[in-house]
């Protein structure tokens, strides 16, 4: 990697971008320093001795395996208070009416949950109980019950996922799901079908030196900030960066990497080519690019003939789609599609990166299949500096499904079938259900319909992460028992119930004896040791909570579900998931193993029955937009998952109530910046204020989770069952 200064990639000649709108990374450092006052030594040990619990790039301490440089991102700094804060005063929970209406950030700031707490039906609040009492209540509720278990991905390690899913199966169900369901489940489905592996096929090192990186519906400057350092080095190595999105993200236009001297002073101009598409128009655009590749003879015929199948069906599908149809759906011209086709055709290597802008649609699986088609058409899989990368936003999300914490999957990502269930029945010594369980959204539906007796939520907040908070609130009221496992309070815990509500305090990954592991976006299984520091009350590791629940609900299976510690869990994971070979040997800071090596399919064979990758005939979705209507997408601002850190986004100056609108549409409707407007989708409505932004006309963006009030909870994709986080709306002055 060149260490010479390269003004061609500078974002500005102004030192440190003074006077320009951008996040102040050094101010973030100061805020983090202030936020952990009195606990700074512990915070420093977490930063330097632990594996990052933020996004899924997986830095060890403040370094990683891509380059020998310091990494420290704002997301991780903002999580420090959660990992170091003292216990809350449990007397605050005696009557929760005083906490009603508080924002989630205010509830978190009250402190860590220190003890098990129980709220009986009809009582005003929670009373402290012992672990024995709490487990007795939970076990009695779970015994012979219709139940569902949901785990979020906020720092949840592989050991917790594995133990939890085993416990759920011991209880007699497959109703366990995790946060991957509502972010990358379409990627899991489509990648399994097309290349045989539901993971990124390359490593971050493949970015640096690749001819081209294409980001599709993905914004790492906001969601995976450490990745921006990789892009800085990729640009230095001559890599071109293209972006396909409805919104021209300011952080992907130019970015100041705080830990790199050149980028910190002059910034880095990131995106070379931008392609604007409608919200929901990705298939129209990507199919148009494939159509150009086919018609102009820019397909890698050798790769297609030797390593793939189904190309003729895919070719016929795009041949039957007219340019007029593709342009109308995508919002882009055939010339723009040709421009990306030329970039792909002229590149010897390329990495295609996507995220929730692609997946969170009712046709999310087809969106991913369309991305895979482009990579296969050019042979950009299995080679150096090439690959398919569904970049993950949370440190626990890749391992969640691979550990089997999935309603539709067993450990190793195996589908729930009688044959696979029999395999785990033999391994574990108890009967494993052989039919798929309820997904996260299905659990809420069942609870709403009165068909779920017990709902267990580990972390997360259904009121914030799923469409239609009112619908979710009603669903939360109806089970006879709700169990919330978490480190802090959340608003869903305070929803009054027709039954009992139990709060169980969990440990962070840094508090767990024996250490834990996470799996990063690049398939790297990384050990994170226990970090010396204060411990909170009677908090337990989640692996112990779930196995004890199963042991007490089904005493006959107690010896089969209990573990002596996390090393024992890793030993069993290695037996249950063959491609996790090596996890049992991880036990010191920095220990890691990358399953599949630097890149998958380097031998030319894919993980499909015949070893061939599969093209897909991707149909155009039926998206008809009435005159005057807009497509609105939900976006992230200064936040991590649903945890909002700042009201104003430093990248674009958008407040949480901002409605991002193109200047063309704002002028056409006579709406100056700051104008109060109402967005309506049927009976659903949202009020905000106009903010002009570089977004494709006819499209809007509003913040998530605030914008969830517009979303239809019944709209989900057919295979992955992911909710649709977009809506068709009309706009009027409020």
Automatic annotation (TrEMBL):
<feature type="domain" description="Molybdopterin oxidoreductase">
    <location>
        <begin position="112"/>
        <end position="551"/>
    </location>
</feature>
<dbReference type="InterPro" id="IPR006656">
    <property type="entry name" value="Mopterin_OxRdtase"/>
</dbReference>
<dbReference type="InterPro" id="IPR050123">
    <property type="entry name" value="Prok_molybdopt-oxidoreductase"/>
</dbReference>
<protein>
    <submittedName>
        <fullName>Molybdopterin-dependent oxidoreductase alpha subunit</fullName>
    </submittedName>
</protein>
<keyword id="KW-0408">Iron</keyword>
<dbReference type="Pfam" id="PF00384">
    <property type="entry name" value="Molybdopterin"/>
</dbReference>
<keyword id="KW-0411">Iron-sulfur</keyword>
<dbReference type="InterPro" id="IPR009010">
    <property type="entry name" value="Asp_de-COase-like_dom_sf"/>
</dbReference>
<keyword id="KW-0479">Metal-binding</keyword>
<dbReference type="InterPro" id="IPR010046">
    <property type="entry name" value="Mopterin_OxRdtse_a_bac"/>
</dbReference>
């Amino acid at each position: 990697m060149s260490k010479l200064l390269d003004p061609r990639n500078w974002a500005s000649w102004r030192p440190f971008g003074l006077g320009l709108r951008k996040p102040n990374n050094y101010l973030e450092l100061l805020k983090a320093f202030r936020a952990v006052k009195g606990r700074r030594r512990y915070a420093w040990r977490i930063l330097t001795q632990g594996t990052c619990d933020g996004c899924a790039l997986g830095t060890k301490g403040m370094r990683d395996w891509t380059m020998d440089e310091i990494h420290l991102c704002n997301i991780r700094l903002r999580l420090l208070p959660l990992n170091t804060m003292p216990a809350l005063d449990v007397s605050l929970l005696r009557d929760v009416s005083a906490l009603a209406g508080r924002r989630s950030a205010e509830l978190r700031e009250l402190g860590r949950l220190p003890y098990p707490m129980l709220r009986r039906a009809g009582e005003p609040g929670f009373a402290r109980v012992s672990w024995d009492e709490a487990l007795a209540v939970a076990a009695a509720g779970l015994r012979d019950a219709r139940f569902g278990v949901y785990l979020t991905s906020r720092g949840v390690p592989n050991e917790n996922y594995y133990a939890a899913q085993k416990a759920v199966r011991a209880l007699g169900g497959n109703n366990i799901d995790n946060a991957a369901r509502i972010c990358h489940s379409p990627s899991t489905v489509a990648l399994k079908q097309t290349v045989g592996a539901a993971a990124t096929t390359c490593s971050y090192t493949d970015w640096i030196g690749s001819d081209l990186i294409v980001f599709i519906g993905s914004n790492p400057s906001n969601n995976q900030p450490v990745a921006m350092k990789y892009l800085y080095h990729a640009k230095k190595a001559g890599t071109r960066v293209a972006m396909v999105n409805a919104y021209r993200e300011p952080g992907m236009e130019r970015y100041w990497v705080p830990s790199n001297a050149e980028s910190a002073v002059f910034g880095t101009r990131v995106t070379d080519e931008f392609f604007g598409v409608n919200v929901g128009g990705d298939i129209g655009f990507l199919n148009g690019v494939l159509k150009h590749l086919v018609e102009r003879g820019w397909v890698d015929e050798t790769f297609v003939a030797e390593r793939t199948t189904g190309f003729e069906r895919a070719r016929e599908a795009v041949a039957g789609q007219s340019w007029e149809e593709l342009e109308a759906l995508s919002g882009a011209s055939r010339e723009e599609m040709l421009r990306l086709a030329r970039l792909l055709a002229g590149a010897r290597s390329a990495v295609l990166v996507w995220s929730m802008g692609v997946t969170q649609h009712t046709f999310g699986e087809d969106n991913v299949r369309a991305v895979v088609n482009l990579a296969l058409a050019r042979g950009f899989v299995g080679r150096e500096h090439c690959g398919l990368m569904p970049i993950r936003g949370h440190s626990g999300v890749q391992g969640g499904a691979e550990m089997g914490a999935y309603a539709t999957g067993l450990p190793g990502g195996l589908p729930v079938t009688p044959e696979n269930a029999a395999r785990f029945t033999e391994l574990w010594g108890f009967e494993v259900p052989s039919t798929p369980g309820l997904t996260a959204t299905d659990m809420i539906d069942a609870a709403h319909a009165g068909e779920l007796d017990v709902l267990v939520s580990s972390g997360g907040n259904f009121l914030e992460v799923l469409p239609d908070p009112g619908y979710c609130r009603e669903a939360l009221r109806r089970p006879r028992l709700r169990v919330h496992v978490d480190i802090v309070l959340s608003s869903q815990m305070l929803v009054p119930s027709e039954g009992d509500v139990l709060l169980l305090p969990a440990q962070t990954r840094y508090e767990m004896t024996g250490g834990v592991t996470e799996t990063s976006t690049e398939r790297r299984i990384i050990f994170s040791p226990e970090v010396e520091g204060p411990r909170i009350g009677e908090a337990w590791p989640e692996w112990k909570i779930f196995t004890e629940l199963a042991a007490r609900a089904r005493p006959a299976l107690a010896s089969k579900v209990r573990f002596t510690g996390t090393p024992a869990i890793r030993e069993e994971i290695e037996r249950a998931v063959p491609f996790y070979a090596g996890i049992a040997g991880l036990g010191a800071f920095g220990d890691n193993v990358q399953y599949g090596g630097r890149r998958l399919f380097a031998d030319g064979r894919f993980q499909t029955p015949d070893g061939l990758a599969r093209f897909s005939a991707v149909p155009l979705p039926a998206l008809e937009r009435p005159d005057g209507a807009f497509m609105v997408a939900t976006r992230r601002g200064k936040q991590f998952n649903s945890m909002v850190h700042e009201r104003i986004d430093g990248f674009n100056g958008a407040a949480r109530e901002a409605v991002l609108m193109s200047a063309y549409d704002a002028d056409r409707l006579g709406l100056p910046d700051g104008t109060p407007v109402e967005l309506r989708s049927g009976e659903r409505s949202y009020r905000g204020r106009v903010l002009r932004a570089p977004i494709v006309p006819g499209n809007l963006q509003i913040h998530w989770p605030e914008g969830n009030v517009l979303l239809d909870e019944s709209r989900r994709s057919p295979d992955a069952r992911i909710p649709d986080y977009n809506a068709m709306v009309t706009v009027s002055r409020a």
